[in-house]
Amino acid sequence: MLERVRRSRDARFDGRIYFGITSTGIYCRPICPAAPRASSRHVRYFATAAAAHAAGFRPCLRCRPEVAPGSAAWTGTSAVVHRAVQMIQDGALDESDIPGLAARLGLGPRQLDRLFATHVGVSPLTLAQTRRLHFAKCLLEGSGLRMTEVAFAAGYGSLRRFNDAVRRAYGHSPRVLRQVLARETARPAGDGVRLILAYRPPYDWSHLSAFLQARALPGVERVGAEGYARLVRTGETHALIQVHPIPGQDALALQVYGASPSALMALTATARRMFDLSADPHQVGIDLGADRQLRPLLLRRPGVRIPGIWDPFECAVRAVLGQQISVAAARTLAVRVLQRFGEPVKPAVAGLTHLFPTARQIAAGDLADLGLTGTRLRTVRTLARAVADGRIDWHADPATVVAQLQALPGIGAWTAQYIALRALGDPDALPAADMVLRRVAGGRSGPLSVQQMQSRAESWRPWRGYAAVQLWCAAHDEPVRPVRSPQRRRT
User: Fold this and answer.
1) Which of 321, 345, 344 is nearest to 334 (CA)?
2) Is residue 369 annotated as part of the catalytic site, yes or no?
3) CA atoms within 13 A on the CB side of 374
4) Close Cβ partners of 305 (under 8 Å, ≥ 6 residues apart)
5) CA 119: distance to chain centroid?
6) Is the pLDDT higher at 233 or at 83?
7) How far apart are CA 92 and CA 85, in angstroms?
8) Fewer CB atoms inside 10 A, N or C side of the chain?
9) Is 28 a catalytic residue?
């Protein structure tokens, strides 16, 4: 089967399988035009790019396997391994070590190594090192940063270690590799850093951008034909990020202005989570397509992703503000909060003027006269204090975050699950009390009860979040008669 995949060059297997050619010492993606020409006796197969790298193979400069979408094989058969891989991809080992990561997962370091050996084929440390190496290559290609800046931005403790790692992986020094890459792609003019964020197609950018545009906060973010733009905090300062599709490529471009090199990896990880770039729509389609109601929706919109939000605290505040009211009304309340507590940026950057307030700024402020009900005002204040005090750990697994949120008065299952869906990118989050979901799922029989909705969605695991987005799309495409309900709307 693997030999057929290699010779087919089928893009649906891109990111799932890698081929190492022993005669050249190079590993490729299934879509590489050179891979099918190699004799089968010279080919070795790997589930991840990290495994090929650990076996001593260098990435092909023609098909560039390091920018292939995240391997679906990384999820393995263990939910713990899936969580660990996602945490490493989000930078869990940049400021911690293996024992610290294992403790967050409730495991011992040796047990974590054994799970990775079984399901991933490489150690957690090797996976983290491969991530740093690939990010360094992206910076060499997409920025004019000095070599020292690239090295430290990618997490290398010294320039010598950086030079050695690049030379072992690519067969060139960093300077020569930058020259090779420069001949293939032109770097746009300007002071910003441009990074290429690959994804596995199809990708429904029109749906995601329309969703974000309807909820964009004026002054903080802007969504239009040119893409998505936003002001973000980076330590004690701020930066401008811009994201837009790249015509003819299965990738988005992330342009960053004003950020220090050390902030680039974290910004990249957040952008990948917000725009749901690690999803495997083919696998989601196979699993959810078994449901007769979801199948036509998936055929209509095969590339729908979970529309994220940049800052989890902002998502939580806006979810609370949006309880029981429409999207437009919720955005009006969010604008009032922004105007009172937001941090002005002068001069304005690309027409954007504010940073969304921090938890401490809201917790210490006066929420009166903003049009909030007494219950909602108390919930926002309690939420802000909990985040400021560290009682909400946005880096914990989604189940833990949901439990922490629901422990706060005024935050129920719908709000917590909605936050898990959009702020954490949890693919299995389900705001089951949402009236739109229950009405569309119930069809002509009428809205399902919350319990019926939860039961109905059991067969959708672990993709209940994608099913929810598809049902929301169906409600938008085929409007249903509105029903008054406290859980009817979403922010």
Assistant:
1) 321
2) no
3) 0
4) 203, 204, 207, 208, 275, 276, 279, 281, 469
5) 22
6) 233
7) 9
8) N
9) yes
Among 14, 28, 90, 276, the one annotated catalytic: 28
CATH superfamily of 72-184: Homeodomain-like (1.10.10.60)
Closest-CA residue to 313 (of 354, 364, 363, 260) = 363
Contact 30, 10 (CB under 8 A): yes
Q: How many CA atoms lie within 13 A of 343 on its CB side?
A: 14
Fold adopted by 193-275:
TATA-Binding Protein (3.30.310)
CA distances from 216 to 313, 366, 379 (A): 15, 24, 23
In sequence order, the 6+-apart residues with CB closer than 8 A to the CB of 108 are: 102
| Domain ranges across the chain | 2-64, 72-184, 193-275, 288-303+427-491
The answer to whether 449 and 286 have CB atoms below 8 angstroms apart is: no
Return the CATH number of the domain spanning residue range 288-303+427-491. Answer: 1.10.1670.40
The residues that bridge with 222 in the sheet, in sequence order, are 229
Name the architecture of domain 2-64: 3-Layer(aba) Sandwich (3.40)
The arithmetic mean of pLDDT across residues 267-284, rounded, is: 90
Q: Which residue has the tokens 């973010």?
A: 221
The reported pTM is 0.74
Query: To 10 degrees, what angle do helices 464-477 and 281-288 make?
Result: 80
228 three-state secondary structure: strand
Question: What does the alpha-carbon distance between residue 357 and residue 348 come to, in Å, rounded to a whole number?
Answer: 17
At 83, the amino acid letter reads R
The dihedral through the CA atoms of 99, 105, 110, 113 has a sign that is negative
User: Which is the catalytic residue, given 311, 397, 426, 434?
Assistant: 434
What would the pLDDT profile of 386-417 be if each residue is shown by its tens digit?
Answer: 999 999 999 877 888 999 999 999 999 999 99
Environment class of 189 (CB within 10 Å of its CB; exposed 0-12, middle 13-18, buried 19+):
exposed
Average pLDDT, the chain: 85
User: Would you say the C-alpha torsion 4, 6, 12, 15 has a positive or negative sign?
Assistant: positive
